Request: fold
Amino acid sequence: MLMSLSTNLLESYQNQIQKNYDEIKDADGKIKPHWQQLFSTLEKLGLEELNARCTGIISKLRENGVTYNIYESSADGHNRPWKLDPIPFLLHEKEWELISKGLIQRAKLMDAIYQDIYGPQRLIKDGILPPHVVYGNYGFFRSCYDVKLPSKNQLIIYATDFARGPDQRMWVLDSRTQSPSGSGYALENRSVISKFLPELTEGMTLNRLAPFFNTLQQSILNLSKTGKGQPNIVYLTPGPHTETYFEHTYLASYLGYTLVQGDDLMVRDNKVWLKSITGLEQVDVIIRRIDDEYADPLELREDSRLGVPGLLKAIRSGNVVVLNPPGSSVLENNALLPFMSSACEYFFGEKLLMPNIATWWCGQKRELDYVMENLHKLIIKKANRNERYRSIFARTLSPAELEKLRKEILEKPADYVAQQESQLSTTPSFVDGKIEPRFAAMRAFLVSDGEEYHVLKGGLTRSSAASDRFVISNQLGGISKDTWIVGDKDTQPKEKLVVASTDSFKHQTSLPSRSAENLFWAGRYCERSMTTTKWIKILFNTLHDNVTLGGSPKSQHITVLLQALTHLTLSYPGFLEESLCENPYEEILQLTSQLTKSGSLAAALQSFLRGVISVNDKWNHDTRRNINAIEDSLWELKGLQTSNPNTIQRGLDRLQTRLFAFYGVIAESHPRDAAFYLFESGKLIERILAKISVLRTGLSTQNDFPVEKEVMEAILINHHLLVYYRQLYKSHISIETVLDMVILDEKLPYSLTSLLSQLFDYISKLPNYKDPERLSTAAKFVLEASTKIKLAKIEELVLSDEDAYRLHLDKLLSELYDLISSVTASLTNQYFTHTTMQHSLMKNPENTDNNEI
Amino acid sequence: MKYKLKHKTIYRYFEPVNTYHSVVCLEPLNNEIQVCKNFQLLISPSIPTTSINKRLDFFGNTNHYFSIETPHKELVVEAVSEVESKPQKLNPALLSITCAETLDLIQANRDLRVSIWQYMIESPFIHWDEEIKAFALPSFQPNRPLHEAVKDLCHRIFTEFKFVSNYTNINTPIKTVLRERKGVCQDFSHLAIASIRSMGFAARYVSGYLETKPPKGQKKLQGSDASHAWISVYIPHAGWCEFDPTNDLIPEERHIVTSYGRDYSDVVPLKGVIFSSGRHTLSVEVDVIPLEDN
Reply:
């Protein structure tokens, strides 16, 4: 159907272009050669193929876990996948050179304004800026007036949004200065597009993104010159609930910095320290992704739990560099826009190379009058950025609404700005299987090496979801595009490869205590999911066989196995109420799919995902893909409505394979570092405890042989040993041989003794910085358990008393259980002690919002 | 007047606190009408005095920073100093500018506007609406001298409002204070500042101490004084002039200034962040002791 269009793609696109200027045309209305080239490649590809590739891109992004969390919908834990248009946004490098000059001028101007506002305030004194734009600016933090970086430029990282205006020049729409986001998404967009649409670059040379990130690393290194060689650089995120968390983990691992949250850091002696599992490490540079007001609860927002108390003091003492310095949000104010041009003249004696979108600040009489007269055709925004207040397109308002808006503005005029709704250019976008013109804006990224600014040759372009309006916010459903700065085929790429000093290649091995704890618990919950899955599968098989063989549902062995599930998941009373055993499926369904049921598989998976995602920077690409597959399983299980065992089983089979694959990738590829040993220790501890729990329920009390036979078979399956057992012993089954195998046989990876040796090995490899010469307390517990089991005698373990109670077996198992449980407590004491809460002794009355991307 | 000043704050925690970060704003100002000598900060658990950092804040007030890294269940911060205060000499001739003239002057003089702007607009604790404007209006007749108008406002607050401790806290909105007609010195100062700013004038918050006199025939009790708050209003030609709405008087030697800010949030005497799981209690003792040679 798609191919039946008679005209070619370029023609049919041209027919759709409205009166607006479109990116594909130059000033004379001719198609720009690089767009011509792109369309001819698209033509060859065909819409149908483009559609197929687009589907591939969507699932790839999903698989890679590229998300943009949205506040309203993140409550249910569902991340919103990133949207990427397969058609890139193209700019020729000749035009880009001009744009870059404008961007660099703008960055220098922003830096000069920043330094003036927190310094001599000449702009106010000399009448360039009205005082209100500074003093009424929520981003102006008086406690930051003496926070200075040791470099010429203070604004190190800068991002700005721009779009093409009717005069064909690029107009600046907005700036991001406190913790600019988006460059990580730009990287990911590039990587996905080049995988799925490699032929699109045909006939052009495309500028690479990597050199910019080299410059970024080198600049950060320059700023952190501490004279002690390898600087400790951390990337400070508010945590997994932030909308751009994907990008924080992505960039932290791309740049090789330790991803931390506020409570991983502390200030002591005016220095910042990272709480790591090997003690306190001094931090030299913090790249922050938390907003200004949250950076230091002592001197900024008192109720902030995201920042580091005493941080401002540490920066003032010159002991740490924070990028961008707190206070830079003063520049993210719409009321500044109208004054950029005169500020540029004032500081540099130059005209602005890139104009702003026309903006009127209502805090001035003349401007207010203009806005009141022309309100119906303007866009109204708050001067102080406020996410809850969406831009109002006044032309869409009813007369009554317009009157209400007018009254609101007149009440507090200084709170508002108005902008012209301009005819910005459109660009080809792939929408519902067709190529259509959409408004688009590009975000450019700059970094200063301390002295001068460098521009990323590329960026993040976002196009409007609606066709009639310019709304590019990700929160409002905008779509991103890869951004190409292209040269002609015959020109060689002129980029210099920056050779970073060897310092920047040195690997950071810090493992924050919080990450350590998350890794450990990710291991535990992963294995808890695994053991629950395994046991429910065993139960289904047994229940099926029982039906096939015409057994009663009240068969005793089934009751034992069902009760083992209750003990395993600690979901009491569960099957200990024997009436439940008659129709067990409903309880099993709940234990599988109900997030709110304590001990359920869904709950364990959820906890696993929470832990594993909060240390996302530790995983390689393949591991992340597996994590996403497991997340899919959770959604599948949560959606189960039926207690039809076949449906549940299929879901469990898939999940089990995914969990095994996850273990496999880690075993095959993860470096043997503390992160690995903690994850594996968590996994082994959980596995040992689970195996013990089942053994105790199944075998501590001797049953009649036919019942015990069934139980023993289930236990062998639980240890992945039934096939092996039959090879050795054929159909002969006895308690001696079974216990020997599942408890004592060192050759078998799932025997308790093997699991304990493995655990001892891993725990001994964890850093024991307090006393490196001795075994840690945790290792001692494991050694004790391991020794106890090695000394056990099978002939004693199988003995039962007159009540059919196997005292020796139960005693041994319960001692092991207690010892291994103590391991968690001693690991917590040694590595994870950061859990004390922080309180402010003065409550903050203010309540302001977060910034979006 | 010469005074010995003691301001002792005691925190008691139910659970041991391991880390405490603090910034205090307790050192009296040094200026032409007030001299502060021998300021000392005594902290328990004790820390080396070299680890206390001094810094001037944006408004020129003195802040001290310190941290305690040892587990403790009680924290005592005692600020001690000697202060000599001289009466502010106001030339009555300079206080004649009327409200209307002041507004015209602010409108006409950009340099003036720049220098006082942050005391004319909303700030974290200072917001106003029609209700507060309506309350302020009767005092600020256009032809009345501004100084007299503010005095009248303070007099109205003094007579119409009741001083009631523990009824409000620092987060009680000004509107509640206005409606309930009761509060403490912070509330009255914030109400006065909001009223004055709502009329288009500049007002700031003053944090400090007031020497109190015991009832006739009784001896002054130790720790019976309190930290105090009042206001400072910009009167063209005369400069910043102080008023005490809580006591309906013009501050003189008995008022000792620690700091100036837009409102309480700029001059919190003692701010801190603790790492602990528990609750705490707080007690404050203040003594303003006149010295012998007065």
About this structure: The CA atoms of residues 293 and 347 of chain A lie 28 Å apart.
